[in-house]
Amino acid sequence: MRVDAEDNVIRVARLTKTYETAAGPFPALRGVDLDIRRGEYVAIMGPSGSGKSTFMNLLGCLDTPSSGEYALVGRNVAHLPGDELAALRNRTIGFVFQGFNLLPRMTLEDNVALPLVYAHVEREERRRRAREMLARVGLEGYARSLPARISGGQQQRVAIARALINGPRLILADEPTGNLDSHTSEEIMTFFRELNDEGITIVLVTHEADIAAHAERQVRFLDGLIVSDRPTPRMEMPTC
Amino acid sequence: MLSVMLGEAWHAMGCNRLRTALTMLGMVIGVGSVVLMMAIGQGAQYAVAQTISTMGSNLYVIIAGWTQQAGVRSGGGYGFTLRLGDADAIEELDGVSLVAPAHQGTQQVVYGSKNWSSVIVGTTPAYLEARAWSVASGYGMDDSDVRSATRVALVGKTVVESLFEADEEPLGKTIRIRNTPFTIIGTLAPKGQNLDGRDQDDTIIVPLTTAQRKVFGVPFAGSIRQIVVQAESNEAMPAVEKSVTALLRQRHRLRADQDNDFYIRNLAAAADSAAETTRVMSLLLGAIASVSLLVGGIGIMNIMLVSVTERTREIGVRMAIGARQKDILAQFLLEAIMISITGCLIGLALGIGSALAVNALTDMVIVISGSAVLVAFVVAAGVGVFFGFYPARKAAALDPIEALRYQ
Ligand SMILES: Nc1ncnc2c1ncn2[C@@H]1O[C@H](COP(=O)(O)OP(=O)(O)OP(=O)(O)O)[C@@H](O)[C@H]1O
Ligand SMILES: [Mg+2]
Fold it and tell me: Is A177 touching ligand 1 by the criterion CB < 6 Å?
């Protein structure tokens, strides 16, 4: 596939994903086209089972599509071998999960630095960058703590620090506020806003309209297809 | 990268100490018993080899049997079918290098107020030569002692220790065997136990003639109980056995339908079979111990499988942030190897320790060879790789999405 613009972080065309289940093949995605430009902030919405997570997994190179094309930062990645997908997940993409997914037995510092281990960064450099990143998410005092000792909101900030540490172009967040109360959710969203202002592309799945309102573009899924794709209406801003 | 992974493996081992320790225990016991069993087995082999080297090489012992008259054996115990003339005749045969007629038996020995029961061997100087038995102090006997039946004696180390005080010089002293005084002219170099476990140093060697006249007595002149024959070489032994048998049958006028009236005991063959027995024994010990090593390995596999399942989500996270399959494989493999090597080191220490303890507490000979230790170590590391590989591969083959979803 020819890719014309380096400007597009994501170009997806006719993407399908069919799961083989006991009841026969199940088409979770049935032909999705979507371009996301550098620096965009996109919210993906839709009812449960509409294929949002399936789509995010494909974008995140955790899975490969059944058919269709996917270009990530100008590179066709739909059928790359596993090691190259791993390298992309390591350097180009940062994941933020609903359940935070910190490793429970590691200190926050080691958790944040973990992607650098797989990028073969030196120990001292890893530590320096991890502390820097923790400071950025407002947790400088917690480098040697274990994840269980801090609150959910703090854990999600550590997870964001981990997602950012290798300087990714793209942050993929599947319901990042799903486990947080509304106040903490707002904090996290403010942080995403800052990141996006710095030029990082963000794709975020959410069920909640007020979370989606932080994005500048909203894409709606239904039954494995995109049914609407429009800018966020700017009529009312969240009250301060 | 490796140092990080080593650190993580170490950390993972420390996270569930009791479980790691129990897993390791299998390895510890496996390696420990291999090392101990090999030490005991090699010790036994060494002890036998040592004993064999004290026997003298290429030896036959011909022992007097019974004359058969109308199918009835005369007498019990030793027979009296061998004569001095037989020994002289054997000496003329091809392939025979030394012949020593001998008469031996256990007798009471007295020195001063001390009393000891010892094996008395009446023989000729050739006996010492054939048995490669050297004189530690004083002189050996010579042919003139045998001719004139002098009352001289060579005594073994145990005899000296039993009859004399530690600071007493045995040379020149007179001991009494069956009331006959013998003068000690030499002491024998120590030999230790023979293959039957008898203390060879509990021996007194005297001239054959003196022994027969003064100590044992003989039913008729020229009768002897055994003849020690040394062949020129190991290759010559079968031929010597054949010609000695033929010669003695002819001299004893045995008809073709009569059995031999003597026994020929091949000491070299006895030595070989003793060596073979201990070799098989030590192999067997090693094999049995290896089974516990195997069980230890299976224990590691079991725990690693549990660990992979428990840490499925962690594996998913690692994959999501950029771990390749081989990184995951290496992580779990390293953990298995680390458990087995740590267990192996502890097992080595324990095995060597208990081997030394066995050595100190019993009179068993223990040989701890570097190669045995090395083999145990390499095998243990191999067990770690072998039994760690399947769980590690299982971890590496996980689907990241499934793994992340795992509760
Ligand atoms: N591994 C799988 N095997 C079979 N079917 C699957 C698999 N993963 C997802 N599905 C099905 O595909 C459909 C889409 O799932 P997906 O997780 O993408 O939905 P979603 O939009 O993220 O839903 P939610 O909002 O509940 O997270 C669902 O019907 C789901 O049951
Ligand atoms: Mg979902």
Answer: no
Place of tokens 């573009």: A217
pLDDT digits (tens, 9 = 90+) for B156-178: 999 999 999 988 899 999 999 98
- The one-letter code for the residue type at B127 is Y
Output the CA torsion sign for B159, B164, B168, B170.
negative
Other Cβ atoms within 10 Å of B151 Cβ, number: 16
Q: How confident is the model at residue A238 (pLDDT cuts 50, 70, 90)?
A: low
Would the CB atoms of A115 and B322 count as touching at under 8 Å? Answer: yes
Residue with token string 């995403």:
A192
Side chain identity, residue A74: G
User: What is the full DSSP assignment across A11-23?
Assistant: EEEEEEEEEEETT
DSSP letter, residue B257? T
Task: Identify which of B40-44, B184-188, B269-273 has the greatest average pLDDT.
Answer: B184-188
Residue with tokens 């000695």: B244
Q: What is the pLDDT of residue B375?
A: 82
| Predicted local distance difference test score (pLDDT) of residue A239 | 53
* DSSP letter, residue A237: P
Chain centroid to CA B359: 14
Nearest residue in chain B measured CA to CA from A113: B321
Coil, helix or strand at residue B399: coil
Q: Return residues 59-98 of A near B (CB < 8 Å).
A: 60, 62-63, 82-83, 86-87, 89-91, 95, 97
Residue B399 has pLDDT above 90, yes or no: yes
**Is residue B108 within 8 Å of B135, Cβ to Cβ?**
no
Of B148, B137, B141, B104, nearest in space to B126 by CA:
B141
Ramachandran region, residue A119 (left: φ > 0; alpha: ψ -120 to 50; beta: rest): alpha
Domain A8-231: homologous superfamily in CATH: P-loop containing nucleotide triphosphate hydrolases (3.40.50.300)
- State the Cα–Cα distance between residues B362 and B406, nearest whole angstrom: 57
Distance CA A37, CA A43 (A): 14
- The domain segmentation of chain B, as residue ranges, is 2-52+273-405, 66-260
User: Using CA atoms, how far apart are residues B285 and B367, in angstroms rounded to an integer?
Assistant: 14
Instruction: Please give the pLDDT value at position B195.
Output: 79
For residue A206 and ligand 1, the question of a CB distance below 6 A is answered with: no
CB B46 within 8 A of CB B369: no
pLDDT digits (tens, 9 = 90+) for B345-386: 999 999 999 999 988 898 788 888 888 888 888 888 888 889
Of the candidates A88, A92, A127, which has an alpha carbon nearest to the alpha carbon of residue A111?
A: A127
- Assess whether pLDDT exceeds 70 at residue B190: yes
Looking up tokens 């592309």, which residue turns up?
Answer: A201
List the single residue in A with minimal CA-CA distance to B397. A82
Reading the block at residue A196, the tokens are 């996006």
Pairing of strands A170-174, A201-205: parallel
Q: A48 CA distance to ligand 2 centroid (A)?
A: 7
What pLDDT score does B72 carry? Answer: 52
pLDDT of A13 above 60: yes
**Residue nearest atom 11 in ligand 1 by C-alpha distance:** A28
